[in-house]
Design goal:
The chain is an all-alpha fold. Helices cover 71% and strands 0% of the residues. Helix 6 packs antiparallel against helix 7 and helix 9 runs parallel beside helix 11. The longest helix is centred in the last third of the chain and has 18 residues. The radius of gyration is 21 Å and the shape is elongated. It starts with 21 loop residues before the first helix and ends with a helix. The N terminus is likely disordered.
Length: 272
């Protein structure tokens, strides 16, 4: 499935520690240079004298405004950077983000895989790469990356939340319930708690008891009322009960809360 879903994951998030994040260091340099930075970088690119760092500066200066241009600039930057330069791996991460914005998921995965090989213990990159595999419904790869990340950060509630979600989507309901239950030990943020409960409830509703699963999902909505996934899961459970009216009502609720791509196929197939 190529449509981008609204998951709890933070796609291509940067490290919180600026001293370890070469992109933040570079951004600080650009800020120090002031308004002249953009003109200076443009002149170097036009004259053919731009370094790999200059191309990355150009991307940061136009960040988010033109993903296709960002891909071209980063493609020019990579061969000009030494593989030992921290900006080399960051160029792949930035280009992966640009590919995501262009909905070129295969290229985004390829670039983030290269980043992962260069920074194999970066938990954020494993979360983001699992997200991209999830978009392609490659749940075994998504799960494998998250389990690897868990070895480095065993108390990270986001890892458990996403493991619960992907196991549920892969119909591995016992594992979804297990990881969701473990994640509840560490989750504090209401949105994360609500999302974990939604995944656990869906897994229970599809394996243990529909009534019990529904009760857990409705509890999740008390914690996180605007979670479109919770209503989507309610709709899928109702659909498994052949209760199309209730299912369609839940799908419409999910859509109204932002789950447009999420519900499109279901609304078209069952709710005309």
């Amino acid at each position: 499935m190529r449509t981008i879903l609204f998951l709890l994951l933070s796609i291509l998030c940067l490290s919180a520690n600026a001293q370890q994040d070469p992109l933040k260091v570079l951004a600080a340099q650009i800020q120090k240079e002031g308004p002249a930075a953009k003109q200076h970088v443009q002149q170097k690119i036009i004259s053919g004298k731009a370094t790999g760092t200059d191309f990355i500066k150009a991307v940061l200066l136009l960040y988010g405004s033109n993903s296709e241009v960002a891909v071209n600039l980063l493609t020019a930057a990579i061969p000009k950077l030494s593989p030992q330069d921290p900006l080399y791996r960051e160029a792949f991460r930035l280009r992966s983000e640009a590919y995501v914005r262009l909905v070129n998921i295969d290229s985004a995965i390829a670039d983030l895989e290269k980043y992962h090989k260069l920074a194999p213990h970066d938990v954020a990159s494993m979360i983001n790469l699992s997200y991209l595999y999830g978009l392609d419904e490659n749940y075994p790869m998504a799960i494998g990356l998250l389990q690897t990340a868990l070895q480095s950060d065993s108390t990270n509630p986001n890892l458990y939340a996403n493991l619960a979600y992907y196991h549920a989507e892969a119909t591995q309901y016992d594992s979804a319930i297990y990881y969701g239950t473990q994640g509840m030990r560490f989750a504090k943020d209401p949105k994360l708690v609500g999302s974990i409960l939604s995944s656990v409830g869906y897994a229970q509703g599809m394996s243990v008891s529909r009534e019990k699963g529904m009760a857990v999902i409705r509890k999740s909505l008390e914690v996180y009322p605007d979670n479109s996934f919770a209503w989507f899961n309610i709709g899928r459970i109702y659909l498994s009960m052949n209760n199309r009216d209730e299912a369609c009502e839940a799908f419409r609720r999910a859509k109204s809360l932002g789950g447009v791509n999420l519900t499109a196929a279901y609304l078209e197939s069952f709710c005309q």
